[in-house]
């Protein structure tokens, strides 16, 4: 190999490796979005049964997304409202919610990650919630706070911002 070709090949390989790493290693925002998706799939029935071990597994997946001292303050049209404090209250409420609304479906849209630093982030998102109750789906805007602990993002607070529409 010629020396000129070698000088061009080495920087090319380095650039290709850096692009590959950027593509493979998720950004902090992508990691936060993965936690949101895990929480969404744990809350949504998505055709899953709402009893026995399946319910326990879903609730377990949800609590893996939360800090121990999580705070939830929601007021959702369609009958879902209340304040929860701590992962144990959330666990009990999630199990009850899954049994009360076995067809509960949540879809996420318009996710905006802001105030992102090394240990915390603020996320504003719009969620469409279908409980199966009369009135159809509702769209709600939520604000979530995230904390990072041991390299992983966890939801530490969820609060309803406003209802966008009801059907």
CATH topology: Nuclear Transport Factor 2, Chain: A
Average pLDDT confidence is: 82
Provide the CATH architecture: Roll
Radius of gyration, CA atoms, in whole angstroms: 21 Å
Order of helices and strands: HHHEEHEEEE
Task: Give the spatial strand order of the biggest sheet.
Answer: 2-1-6-5-4-3
Give the key terms.
alpha+beta, single chain, 38% helix, elongated, 4 helices, Nuclear Transport Factor 2, Chain: A, 6-stranded mixed beta sheet
Structural features, described:
- The chain is of the alpha+beta class and 167 residues long.
- The chain has one domain: Nuclear Transport Factor 2, Chain: A (Roll), CATH 3.10.450.
- Helix content is 38%, strand content 39%.
- It is built from four helices and six strands, in the order H-H-H-E-E-H-E-E-E-E.
- It has a six-stranded mixed sheet, covered by helices on one side.
- Helix 2 (28-43) runs antiparallel to helix 3 and helix 3 (52-63) packs across helix 4 (87-100).
- The longest helix has 22 residues, at 3-24.
- It is elongated and about 75 Å long.
């Amino acid at each position: 190999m010629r020396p000129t070709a070698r000088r061009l090949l080495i920087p090319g390989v380095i650039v290709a490796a850096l692009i590959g790493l950027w593509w493979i290693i998720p950004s902090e925002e992508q990691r936060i979005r993965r936690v949101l998706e895990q929480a969404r799939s744990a809350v949504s029935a998505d055709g899953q049964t709402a009893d026995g071990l399946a319910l326990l597994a879903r609730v377990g997946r949800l609590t893996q997304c939360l800090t121990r001292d999580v705070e939830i303050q929601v007021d959702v049209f369609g009958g879902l409202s209340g304040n929860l404090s701590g992962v144990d209250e959330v666990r009990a409420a999630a199990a009850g919610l899954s049994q009360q609304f076995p067809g509960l479906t949540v879809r996420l849209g318009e996710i905006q990650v802001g105030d992102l630093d090394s240990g915390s982030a603020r996320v504003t998102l719009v969620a469409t919630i279908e409980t199966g109750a009369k009135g159809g789906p509702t769209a709600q805007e939520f604000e979530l706070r995230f904390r990072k602990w041991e390299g992983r993002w966890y939801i530490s607070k969820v609060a309803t911002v406003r209802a966008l529409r009801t059907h």
